[in-house]
């Protein structure tokens, strides 16, 4: 379970800082369908080059577009007179992409995305001509054709100001017809293979335990931290029912290693759980950060049966020259450090440099990823 903890920034010019922390408590159970995929069951990307016609003077006159138009006319029995320069402003050369799902059969429809390849100003109102879509092996798996829809282009229904999005990319719902299916084998012999989306030995062990508890001992065995081999019925209908029941099983994954992701452009910081910091001192520009601990001793009353208790208190001391001083008692999480830095006006670049220094010094107990 995750939560977002927003806090205000000093001015609109500051970057947005978002903290997503994993709250204390039990990790939520997830279906095996959400944790793993079946080996061999995958989508296949398709790609093709085509022409969009019928544009309102917003096409392109790139050399490859002109050549494609000439080739298309020649295939239809038409040829341009020698020396004629084709000026086709209503045509645009586009790349057409689609994804061929597993088990899709010939005759079914696919959605396609049409993207301008040249200097066309807009694809709004255009029609994609029949375009073969090929797979990685060079074979044609689908044919695409239809009217291109550019989302967000045109006046609003209430007659207000038009809201125009990116006009060089459009979609055609059901614009491709599958001509050839891709054979998909659900395992070999009497076994199927599960592949965890994230490699984790603990989660793999828990998935194996759940499968063996549900379907019987020795049903599943983990080959490593990602791959799990499962015994499955050989009959097609029984195997499908078995896989349906398998994917519906719920498993509680192990807690992931702490990780901090920082976007240096926007200043966003995302953490997958509460990240702790060891005592350290950081100096950056006019900022000074000291994170340390102090012992508090609690003495029992005279002649009592109590014992002396020593409590460790962690403090964060952040100073800014000619600025303010913030003292946060009992703060052991990175979120508190970031909030304090934000309160005194630290920039995303300051946060980036400070977190990198903490990681290099071994004080940041988490993996740091900069994007």
TrEMBL record:
Superkingdom field: Bacteria
GO annotations of cellular component type: bacterial-type flagellum basal body, distal rod, P ring; outer membrane-bounded periplasmic space
Record keyword Signal present: yes
Keyword Metal-binding (UniProt): no
GO MF term set: structural molecule activity
UniProt-listed GO biological process terms: bacterial-type flagellum-dependent cell motility
Alphabetized UniProt keyword annotations: Bacterial flagellum, Cell projection, Cilium, Flagellum, Signal
Cellular localisation: Bacterial flagellum basal body
One Pfam family hit: FlgI
Assigned protein family: Belongs to the FlgI family.
Subunit structure: The basal body constitutes a major portion of the flagellar organelle and consists of four rings (L,P,S, and M) mounted on a central rod.
Role: Assembles around the rod to form the L-ring and probably protects the motor/basal body from shearing forces during rotation.
UniProt-recorded name of the protein: Flagellar P-ring protein
């Amino acid at each position: 379970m995750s939560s977002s903890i927003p806090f205000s920034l000093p001015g609109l010019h500051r970057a947005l800082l978002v903290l997503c922390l994993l709250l204390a408590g039990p990790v939520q159970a997830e279906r095996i369908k959400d944790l793993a995929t079946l080996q061999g069951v995958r989508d296949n990307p398709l790609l093709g080059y085509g022409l969009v016609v019928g544009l309102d003077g917003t096409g392109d006159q790139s050399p490859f577009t002109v050549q494609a138009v000439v080739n298309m006319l020649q295939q239809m029995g038409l040829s341009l007179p020698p020396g004629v320069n084709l000026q086709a402003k209503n045509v645009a050369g586009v790349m057409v992409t689609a994804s061929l799902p597993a088990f899709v059969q010939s005759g079914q429809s696919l959605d396609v995305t049409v993207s301008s390849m040249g200097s066309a100003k807009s694809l709004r109102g255009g029609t994609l001509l029949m375009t073969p879509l090929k797979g990685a092996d060079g074979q044609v798996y689908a044919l695409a054709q239809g009217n291109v829809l550019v989302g967000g282009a045109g006046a609003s229904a209430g007659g207000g100001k038009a809201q125009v999005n990116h006009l060089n990319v459009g979609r055609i719902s059901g614009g491709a017809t599958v001509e050839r299916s891709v054979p998909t084998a659900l395992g070999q012999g009497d076994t199927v293979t599960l592949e965890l989306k994230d490699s984790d030995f603990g989660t793999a062990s828990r998935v194996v335990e759940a499968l063996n508890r549900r379907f019987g001992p020795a049903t599943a065995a983990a080959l490593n931290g990602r791959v799990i081999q499962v015994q499955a019925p050989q009959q097609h209908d029984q195997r499908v029912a078995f896989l349906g029941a398998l994917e519906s099983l719920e498993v509680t994954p192990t807690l992931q290693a702490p990780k901090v992701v920082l976007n240096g452009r926007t200043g966003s910081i995302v953490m997958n759980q509460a990240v702790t910091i060891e005592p350290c001192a950081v100096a950056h520009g006019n900022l000074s950060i000291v994170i340390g601990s102090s012992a508090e001793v609690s003495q029992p009353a005279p002649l009592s049966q109590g014992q002396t208790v020593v409590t460790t208190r962690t403090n964060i001391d952040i100073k800014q020259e000619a600025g303010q001083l913030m003292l946060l008692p009992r703060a052991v999480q990175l979120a508190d450090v970031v909030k304090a830095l934000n309160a005194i006006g630290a920039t995303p670049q300051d946060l980036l440099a400070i977190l990198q220094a903490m990681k290099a010094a071994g004080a940041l107990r988490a993996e740091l990823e900069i994007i």
